[in-house]
C-alpha cells in the first residue's frame, strides 16, 4: 500500500492541496492524543506540523518521530529525531525490538517532561497507527480509558465522513473541557 | 490497553487516525507482545518474592 497516496486521497476528500496545506475546520495539522503525568504530551500530526518549528516549540515538543522513509528531518539540531519506518514493519524479524526503539525514544522524552510529535504526511495512517501503539504501551486500563470506552459506541467509520461526524462530537467535547487521556 | 480501545481513543482525539493496509496486523502483533510481557512479569513476580524471602536472614526471637 502506498501511504503517501492514501494521504493525498485524504487531503483531496477534505479539499486540501496535495501537501495538506489549506484550511479545513475538521482536520488539524496536529492533535494531542495523550498527556503524561510528568507534563509531556504526545501529538499526532502531519507534514505541515513537522515543518513548523515555532509551533512545535510553543507546544513544548522536544522529540519528533518521523514515520516515513521520505520526509526530511526538518529541524535536526533543534529537536531530537527518530525515523520510525512503520510501513516497513514486516521486514523486521524481531518486531518487539523494532517497537522498543520507538518506546525508548518516547519514554526518554516524557521522562524529561518533553512533548513528542509523531508525524507522517497526513498524520492519519502511519503516524496514527504509531500513536495507537504508543497508547497501547503507555496507557493502562485506567478510569480515563474506561470513560472513553463508554463514550464511544457504534462501528468505526473511515474517510471524510468519519472526520465530519467525529469533528462535531469533538467540538462539543472540547467545549465541555474534555482532554487527552493521561497516565496516572 | 487493547488495540480496539487504543484506536477508538486515538480517533476520538484525532478523527483522521485510520490504521489501514497491514497496520491492523501490526497492532494485533503488538497486542500479543504486550500480553506476553504482562504474563512473563506476572510469572516472575511470585518467583522473585519467594527468592527474596529465601534470601532474607531469619531472625530468632528469644
Helix-strand blueprint:
The complex is a heterodimer of chains A (184) and B (62).
Chain A: H1 3-13, E1 30-35, E2 41-45, H2 47-51, H3 53-58, E3 61-66, E4 80-83, H4 95-111, E5 115-119, H5 126-138, H6 143-151, H7 159-175
Parallel strand pairs in A: 2-5, 3-4, 3-5
Antiparallel strand pairs in A: 1-2
Chain B: H1 3-13, H2 23-55
Describe this structure in words.
Chain A has 184 residues and is of the alpha/beta class. Chain A has a single domain (3-175), classed as Alpha-Beta Complex (Protein-Tyrosine Phosphatase, Chain A). Chain A is built from seven helices and five strands, in the order αββααββαβααα. Chain A has helices spanning 3-13, 47-51, 53-58, 95-111, 126-138, 143-151, 159-175; strands spanning 30-35, 41-45, 61-66, 80-83, 115-119. A five-stranded mixed beta sheet of chain A has the order 1-2-5-3-4. The longest helix of chain A is centred in the middle third of the chain and has 17 residues, at 95-111. Chain B is mainly α. The longest helix of chain B has 33 residues, at 23-55. The radius of gyration of chain B is 21 Å and the shape is elongated. At the A-B interface, α1, β1, α4, α5 and α6 of A face α1 and α2 of B.
Short description:
Chain A is built from seven helices and five strands, in the order αββααββαβααα. Chain A is of the alpha/beta class and 184 residues long.
Number of helices of chain B: 2
What is the CATH topology descriptor of chain A? Answer: Protein-Tyrosine Phosphatase, Chain A
Most extensive chain-chain interface: A-B, 52 and 29 residues
Distance between the termini of chain A: 37 Å
Salient structural properties:
heterodimer; A: 184 residues; alpha/beta; Protein-Tyrosine Phosphatase, Chain A; five-stranded mixed beta sheet; 7 helices; 5 strands; B: mainly alpha
Amino acid at each position: 500500500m502506498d501511504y503517501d497516496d492514501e494521504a493525498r486521497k485524504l487531503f483531496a476528500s477534505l479539499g486540501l492541496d496535495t501537501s495538506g496545506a489549506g484550511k479545513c475546520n475538521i482536520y488539524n495539522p496536529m492533535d494531542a492524543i495523550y498527556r503524561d503525568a510528568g507534563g509531556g504530551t504526545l501529538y499526532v500530526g502531519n507534514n505541515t506540523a513537522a515543518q513548523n518549528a515555532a509551533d512545535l516549540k510553543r507546544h513544548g515538543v522536544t522529540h519528533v518521530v518521523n514515520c516515513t522513509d521520505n520526509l526530511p528531518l526538518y529541524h535536526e539540531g533543534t529537536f531530537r529525531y527518530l525515523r520510525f519506518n512503520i510501513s516497513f514493519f514486516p521486514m523486521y524479524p524481531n518486531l518487539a525490538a523494532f517497537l522498543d526503539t520507538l518506546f525508548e525514544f518516547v519514554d526518554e522524552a516524557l521522562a524529561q517532561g518533553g512533548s513528542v510529535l509523531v508525524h507522517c504526511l497526513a498524520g492519519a495512517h502511519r503516524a496514527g497507527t504509531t500513536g495507537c501503539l504508543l497508547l497501547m504501551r503507555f496507557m493502562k486500563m485506567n478510569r480515563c480509558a474506561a470513560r472513553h470506552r463508554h463514550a464511544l459506541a457504534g462501528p468505526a467509520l473511515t474517510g471524510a465522513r468519519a472526520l465530519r461526524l467525529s469533528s462535531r462530537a469533538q467540538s462539543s467535547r472540547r467545549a465541555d473541557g474534555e482532554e487527552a487521556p493521561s497516565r496516572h | 490497553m487493547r488495540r480496539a480501545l487504543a484506536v477508538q481513543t486515538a480517533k476520538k482525539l484525532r478523527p483522521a487516525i485510520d490504521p489501514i493496509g497491514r497496520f491492523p496486523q501490526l497492532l494485533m502483533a503488538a497486542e500479543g507482545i504486550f500480553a506476553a510481557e504482562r504474563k512473563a512479569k506476572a510469572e516472575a513476580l511470585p518467583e522473585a518474592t519467594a527468592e527474596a524471602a529465601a534470601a532474607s536472614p531469619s531472625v530468632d526471637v528469644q
